[in-house]
Amino acid sequence: MSGGSALEFGKFCEDIGVLFNLTLSESGTQYLNTRGFTELHQVLLRINQKVSLEDYLRSLKRDDLDLLINRTDTRGRTPLMWAVEFGWSAATQILLGYGADPHRATTTKRGSSTLLHLAVAGPRSQFSRAGFLEVIDHLLQMGVDVNAKDHEGWTPLHIAASWGTCDLQNLFSHPALDWSVLTDDNMSVDALSPVEQFSNVALARIYQS
C-alpha cells in the first residue's frame, strides 16, 4: 500500500511489541506461534514488512487466498476483524475486496458482536476517528445487518446512543435501521443516550428527511 495507508500503519503499529503487550522474554518466533498469526495477519499487522497488504493478496493463488482470507488467529480474530477494530480504513477496504467476510461475528470471553459493533465503538478509542467512520461506511456498503444484536441485545445504534455519537449519518439514515429496538434489559435508544440531542425522534427527523 502507499500514501495514507502506509502512514496509518506506521503510526498505529510502529511498536508492535507495545501494541500487543509483548514482553522482553518473548522471541519473535515464540510470539507468533502463541498468537497463531497467519502470514496474512503478519502482513496486515506489519510484523512482516517486506510486502504491502495489497501486493501480498494479489500474489496469492486462489486456493491460498480462500484459505487465508477468513482464517482466525488463536484469539478468534480474522485479519478483517483486526483492521476494523483499529479503524484501518484502507486495509478494511482491501480485505473486503479480496473476499473477507464482513458478516462474521467476533467472539470474546464476554460474548459476541459484529464488526459493525466494533466499528461504531471504535471512535472513542485512542486511534483515528476518521478511519473508523470510513470503516463503518465500508461495512454498510457490504450490506451488513444494521440491527444485529450482540450478547447483551445491543445493536450498533444502542452503542452510538450510549456514547452520544451523533455523526454517523450513513448509519442513522439507513432505511432498515430500527429506532425502536430494545436491548435484553429493555433499554431504548433514548434511555441509553447521555445527551438529550440524541433522541431517536430528533435524529430520525434529521437523517431520514
TrEMBL record:
Q: Which residues form the signal peptide?
A: none
**Gene3D superfamilies recorded:** Ankyrin repeat-containing domain
The ANK repeats are at 75-107, 111-151
Provide this UniProt record's keywords sorted from A to Z: ANK repeat, Repeat
For this protein, the record's PROSITE patterns field holds: ANK_REP_REGION (PS50297), ANK_REPEAT (PS50088)
* Repeat recorded as keyword: yes
Q: What is this protein called?
A: Uncharacterized protein
Taxonomic source organism:
Penicillium canescens
Upper classification of the source organism reads: Eukaryota, Fungi, Dikarya, Ascomycota, Pezizomycotina
The protein's superkingdom reads Eukaryota
InterPro entries with a match to the protein in the record? Ankyrin_rpt, Ankyrin_rpt-contain_sf
